[in-house]
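Re: folding output
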Amino acid sequence: MTTPSPQRCVSVVIPALNEARRIASVVQYAMSDPATAEVIVVDDSSVDETAPLAAAAGARVVTSSMLGKGASMEDGIRVARQPCVAFLDGDLAGLAPGIIGRMAAPILADTADFVKARFGRASGRVTELTAKPMLKVFFPELAHFAQPLGGLIAGRANLLRNLHCEDGYGVDVGLFIDAFLAGARLAEVDIGALEHESQTLADLTHMANEVGRVIFERARAAGRMHVDQVAAMYEMQRQAAADIDSILQRRRGRRGLLLLDMDGTVTPSRFAVELARATGQEAALAALLDGGADDAITRSERIAELFRFVPKASFERIAHALPIREGAIEFVNRMRRRGFMVGLVSDSYFIAAEIVRRRIFADFAVAHVINFSQGTCDGTLRINPAFQSASAPGAIDKANVLRRFLDDPAAPPIAQTWAVGDHTNDTGMLALADHAFLLRVPERAPPACPRATVIDSFAELIARVPDA
């Protein structure tokens, strides 16, 4: 079926509280769309000029029946005159032309009843660390939607009038789940890029709590709430923390980057070797490490299978017991005081790298994710995509982690990079860094890396970095 041409059949509802800075431009944008029949601004008793500015821009302004975005959305649905209702936020900017018509198109084509917008910027931390892991566990049918928390929504008016709008930050995901549970046909539409006002850490914390509460309540009401699922949700949240996009959002303007290899560099011993020794798999691990037939990904996956049925607590115990090289913590602290973001990069497992990262006070860890079910390793491994490049998806290289930072479009760009490693699998990362260092270890000669300075201890690095 072809997509119908835009027609003025959409009521655009904009809940607004103290949005005087942008409300007029949002109203004008909505009115310019060929699909828009009316624009309704639901004023949440703003104390600034939101209401008169919206009215002057051409919106019909109504006062919300009570404080809260959910109540304002219900008020807007109640007075909407058109068969299709679309919601915009009052603080939007940088919208591509025609997104209201694009969101309404699947409804007009009778292929969807409820539409979520997908936009260009990366999902926020609450989406990646709270909403998506929970949806994967409790509502896997919805896990493929890119921005489940996004407030840009379109739906049939007769559907929306039968759904409940939550009072807080969980309103958008609540409507999303309720529409699914009501049997509505769901769709996602790419609307390009947009700009939103940034939120404080306190707001993000409150948002995460509200989103979690709403998804839990919907799961319980739908009979999907089980103890095993809660454990699986926390495991997925742990895995989400390893994703590079989540890490990049924590850069917060820092222009210096230090990447440290874990096994052999920060820790003299290697995590997989210590875990194999503790679990009776030392000989099997040695055979895999010595066998050169497998590519790096296959070898990593086969090693992970050795640890099937090993309790999660054993992984954590070994990671806590790994010795830390003298001077590593002081070096990390000095670099952080000089404004560097410090990361631990390991081709071992995130569960261990995250513990070691915290022990040396680094900012993040990047590693592969070994999976646990009910507190026990199931032997499956997720290769961290940050180690892979689009041109060579079958290969893994720590250099690609550094490239992700250098390619980060967020301002300001990374201006200075340091990297420290000890082994052949670190040389790609070292070759790309502005300042590269190879730690000499007694049992072998340092690998060839012409751009790297060979050092014997972290004390030599500390000497290069004056204390701030």
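--- second protein (sequence, then structure) ---
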Amino acid sequence: MSRQRTHVAVLMGGWSAERPVSLSTGAECAVALRTAGYQVSEIDADPSLAEQLRAAKPDVVFNALHGRWGEDGCVQGLLEFMGLPYTHSGVRASAVAMHKPSSLAVFRANKIPCPEGCLTTVAAVNEKDPLPRPFVVKPPSEGSTFGVRIVRSGDNNPPIGADWQFGDDVLAECFIPGRELTVAVMDGRALGVTEIKTDDGFYDYKAKYSDGGSQHLLPAPIHADVYAQALELSERAHAALGCRGVSRADFRYDDTAGEPGNLYMLEVNTQPGMTPTSLVPELAAHCEIDFPALVRWMVEDAGCAR
């Protein structure tokens, strides 16, 4: 079927904490898909999603959802049930990658270095430090750094306050000093390494999505051996999780004792942000793949188990 006759439904929005990010990703991808020659319908996902998809009758679904329900295998399972080819990873890879304790277990089993940590509870963390300070607490299954906090020596307040909205479970990890790196993987091949610089060294939600909140250095100005290792570890993680299409691996790079330092994988994002200035499109452009070409490839790569 020609692109002019291929109908792509772009799923966006949803009802997770990452709804605003998804709306931005979906709108940009819809524009790029039309530029690439596709017929496009934009669908703001809600609990009537199955009915919306039956009414739209797309040939392919471009999944631009972020966060819970859209990124954790739930929507992927619905699309499999409906027999609709969709972009990004399938049910298992999406579920495992989104649940950080599960993905960290996969990394360790495949000898991919990652921070030491443990799954605990809000009450336990507030009663006694699970790790020496500084350490990081985060929800087990959220993206965009929602809920992530660094607990430092001298902090007097409980590590987790009343504003925590992410359930009773908490992932606690050793804090890794140093630099923030990210790698895009496309069709199993790493495209390059970006260093992300922020004013306070913490790549939180504000730094990710506010204008001027961060600087992206591409290619990352790091030791050549570490650069090569980041590429290799990202490809291994993509394969170990069973990812499909495009993913993004996030690292901390501890070079505080000098280079070459030590890499630690934090997570793999199976549905990374996809605006033209997002990290994955920047890395694709570094490889001379423009944004319309990137989303076109993702549609052509879409799949379904049926």
